[in-house]
Amino acid sequence: MKKLINDPGDVVADALRGIEAAHPRLRVDHGNRVIVRGDAPVTGKVGLVSGGGSGHEPLHGGFVGPGMLDAACAGEMFTSPVPDQIQAATTAVDGGAGVLHIVKNYTGDVMNFEMAAELAAAESGVEVSSVVVDDDVAVQDSLYTAGRRGVGATVLLEKIVGAAADQGRDLAALTALAGAVNARARSMGVALTSCTVPSAGRPTFELPEDEMEVGIGIHGEPGRRRVPLAPAREIASMLVEPILTDLDFTAGDGTIAFVNGLGGTPLIELYVLYAEVAKLLDAAGVAIARSLVGPYITSLDMAGASLTLLSVDDGMLRLWDAPVDTPGLRWGA
Amino acid sequence: MADQLTLDTARAWVEGFAARIHAAADELTALDSAIGDADHGSNMTRGMSAVSAALDGSQTDIGSLLKKVGMTIVSSVGGASGPLYGTFFLRVGTTAGDKTALEPAEFAAALRSGLEGLKARGKATTGEKTMLDALAPALDALDAELSDGGSLSDSLATAATAAAQGRDATVPMVATKGRASYLGERSAGHCDPGATSMALLVDAAATAVSA
Q1: Is pLDDT at A141 greater than 80 in this prediction?
Q2: Interface contact flag, B78 A112, Cβ < 8 Å
Q3: Could you say which architecture CATH assigns to the domain B5-210?
Q4: How far, CA to CA in Å, does A91 sit from each of A19, A96, A138?
């Protein structure tokens, strides 16, 4: 293992110190490992709280700031945060209008956020609502699985719902909007290499030099199948096809196309992939209204990419275009 | 000795569970690497270290002792095992109340309330390749032997055997809950890490009460 760290056990704590030093407009509660927007709580505004295991940066801490999240909880590497952290974040951002929890659909995340919401309601009376993001088409959504995983749609949802919260919408409206965004988003990923969790010190799974895993999860969970490494145009097709099979993207007012890097793939390769994706979407009659290309929800040093498509209406597009000012995403601000 | 769960044996149960988790950490992580995300050993080790540090002798009844254990696990473990083991101990502690000794039937009832808490928190039932597959047969065996007039220590020993058998029975199961469920049929052939740690919990109870 070759990593730019101090001690493998200190990576999360050390990185939080770096975030605090680099972004003075954010507050970091090191005891609870919570990143909070510096002016929180914003009176009368619904607070947006997300969080999850560390190792997916900039998600979630890099998306704290005006126009997006009010707070993010950093769990241990690839392990969901605990209820105490989530409760601390919830209390810190409650401006009197309630708090929305944005939760990726993993068994641990869902349970810890549930317990935190119960504790927050019982102890401080904060009104908490939640949305569970589950956009990964690689997993069959059935009684026989934990359901689809939450991946790339989380980034788009946090941006769109964050803009709506800044406009002063209430908790019920934001919860409904978050559900609508999730329902209209689908994702699919591919890994060219495994990631290496610092405390483990070796790759999470073995993937031969000439193979790739299609349908990979962001923690190195297995995908749908392992196939020979292919050119970008074929990989694009392996990502686009299952998404378009799952949902009709020709119906709405346009589509946001998001090509995401998993941490170890350079931007130039993401653009190679985006070119192929755009060509396929055009051929399928899907109109790209906006795009996002870059590493926004990563899996440590994993090489690979994911594609997320979100079918938007005009309202969602306006919210997407609204100003945002966070370390990970910034425009119009 | 008295055929009861006393405050001291309750503490010994928790300490015995912590010791077993520490000893089995690598095995739990290896099992979790095969069908999960390779963190069950490190998460439970972190949690039980926090529990050992939290048991400072200030807990003077079984309920407050076990609720402290539950809250500490919830606050330190994360993942799915944190809320699950945390909920289990919180429920057992709540049912035990402020007593300093539990009769065999009272302890069995407290354990069963913990089982019900686990089912509710995890929205799971037996046969899904989870920790329930070790705990549920253990408590069935415990109840059966106690109602036949067995002593608490003998009945818990039988329960520990049933938990181990339940753990082993998870090997051919296909997971339908948790991260292992993403593997579908490929999850068969591996022992469930949660059932493995749960069998340690029941074994620790048997040892603590018979000591």
Answers
A1: no
A2: yes
A3: Alpha Horseshoe (1.25)
A4: 21, 10, 36
Domain ranges of chain B: 5-210
pLDDT in tens, B155-193: 999 999 999 999 999 999 999 998 888 888 889 999 999
Q: What was the ipTM of the complex prediction?
A: 0.87
Q: Which of A23, A56, A60, A101 is catalytic?
A: A56
Domain boundaries, chain A: 11-184, 185-311
A76 touches chain B (CB under 8 A): yes
CATH of domain A11-184: 3.40.50.10440
Closest CA to A35 of A51, A46, A22: A51
How many residue pairs from chains A and B have C-beta atoms closer than 8 A? 87
**Are the beta carbons of B38 and A204 closer than 8 angstroms?**
yes
Residue B117 to residues A242, B138, B194: CA-CA distances in angstroms? 38, 16, 16
Mean pLDDT of A320-330: 98
Contact across the interface for A146 and B179, Cβ inside 8 Å: yes
Pairwise pLDDT comparison (A145 vs B195), residue with the higher score: B195
Indicate whether A282 pLDDT > 90.
Answer: yes
Task: Please name which of A82, A34, A124 lies closest in space to residue B71, comparing C-alpha atoms.
Answer: A82
Q: Which of B42, B83, B182 sits opposite A111 (nearest CB)?
A: B83
pLDDT at B2: 63
Q: CA-to-CA distance for B133 and B124, rounded, in angstroms?
A: 10
Distance (Å) from the alpha carbon of B110 to chain A's nearest alpha carbon: 21
Among the CATH numbers 3.30.565.10, 3.40.190.10, 3.30.1180.20, 3.40.50.300, which is that of A185-311?
A: 3.30.1180.20
> Token digits for A146?
């934990």
Mean pLDDT over residues A119-148, rounded? 88
Q: What is the pLDDT of residues B96-140, one digit of tens each?
A: 999 999 999 999 999 999 999 999 999 999 999 999 999 999 999
